[in-house]
Amino acid sequence: MKTDVAVIGGGAIGAAIGYFLRAHPRASEVAVIERDPAFRLASTPRASGGVRQLFSLPENIELSKFGLEFFSRFERDMAVDGAPAPIGFTRGGYLFIVPPAAIPVLEANFAIQQRHGVDVRWLDPAGLKTQFPSMRVDDLGAGVHSPTDGWLDPSSVLQGLRRKARALGAILVTGEVVGIEHDGRRARNLRLKSGETVEAELFINAAGAWASEITAMIGLAVPIEPMRRYEHYFEPGTPIEKLPYVKDVNRLAFRPEGKGYTGGVPDLAEPRGFNFEVDHDYFERVVWPAVAHRFPPLETLKLKNTMPGLYDQNELDGNPILGPCGLENFHLAAGFSGHGLMHAPGIGRAFAELILDGGYQTIDLTRFGWQRVVENKPYRERGIL
Ligand SMILES: Cc1cc2nc3c(=O)[nH]c(=O)nc-3n(C[C@H](O)[C@H](O)[C@H](O)COP(=O)(O)OP(=O)(O)OC[C@H]3O[C@@H](n4cnc5c(N)ncnc54)[C@H](O)[C@@H]3O)c2cc1C
Fold this sequence. Notes:
Blueprint: E1 2-8, H1 12-23, E2 30-34, E3 50-51, H2 58-77, E4 94-98, H3 103-115, E5 121-123, H4 125-131, E6 142-146, E7 150-151, H5 154-167, E8 171-174, E9 177-182, E10 187-192, E11 197-205, H6 211-216, E12 224-235, E13 245-248, E14 253-257, E15 260-264, H7 282-294, E16 302-314, E17 321-325, E18 327-334, H8 340-357, H9 371-374
Parallel strand pairs: 1-2, 1-11, 2-8, 4-13, 11-18
Antiparallel strand pairs: 3-7, 4-6, 5-6, 9-10, 10-11, 12-15, 12-16, 13-14, 14-15, 17-18
The structure holds flavin-adenine dinucleotide (FAD).
């Protein structure tokens, strides 16, 4: 087949790019190529679903602001033939909590967030205790609460984006990319396992944790590695007050879900690789003590489910690599390192701007480009990741 833009990978990122390329006033033809339309191992359906503006880099804050705006209208805007696209979007808020030593970083980030118009509230330990009576606060220095942040159902977002992209004319191709033909300057076509080829003017690698396998097809090494992370679902023995999405400096991160909570403690020391095994001790050893320490009434919680998933971890700086890379017409949209779902709408819009308007129009994401990798200049978040 032949198209203008071929997107490799049909998860949240690929689907959002497909949608925004079709929704643009000068829409291009686009084919989104996905090897497994059931998304059995993809990261998107395994995500926790959190959307937060609590970042330090302006790009990440702005991407989240747009994400929240987009998700708040999603059900209506992604409707197809009058059928709405509910995603369970809940503005339950986020809460970052830090020990006294980390107050200066939290303060600096708080100031940046305020400058970007984020609704953020500073809470000292007494304020935390008043708002969240079950929380242990004697070892905390402060917290920042962002009541307009929240969460959603990742699979519904993925299905909604795909359905709408298709309704607008995106071609959703089922196939596995196994090779890329190029002349060292430009890519010409993709080879699929079926033997078919996809010819295009421009190619976007949105293969998430598999992005390095795709760039290897053009002889390019990128610092993106699969990193296993568990999402646990657990229920309290005794119910406590309503919590926001809570995160701390030791990477404990969890939020309300149904009768209980979903979340975990990502381990950055986790060996890299496509590992979907479950270490059944991890929750007991790492997550449960962290939850019980912070919320003593949750000591009697019951673990109900553990799901492994992969981060597309950018080893350089934990932020995505976006735009042209390796060949003139070969773009990368990967390395999201745990933030890809919340940023998918902003990334989709950014690629539509880059391709159809000739450059970023709304959020300037130049600093997330490949150049920083070439120059080995990390562009990192400060504080809680
Ligand atoms: C446990 C966990 C919790 C998370 N929590 C959050 C959160 O709260 N908020 C948030 O924003 N993010 C979160 N994330 C991160 C988020 O899930 C990812 O950043 C995001 O889903 C990335 O989307 P993607 O489309 O790039 O990748 P994916 O969803 O993995 O999609 C990539 C697709 O590429 C396909 N593919 C790969 N190779 C090929 C090939 N050769 N040919 C064709 N297709 C191919 C794969 O089949 C896959 O479907 C979490 C991740 C995990 C694992």
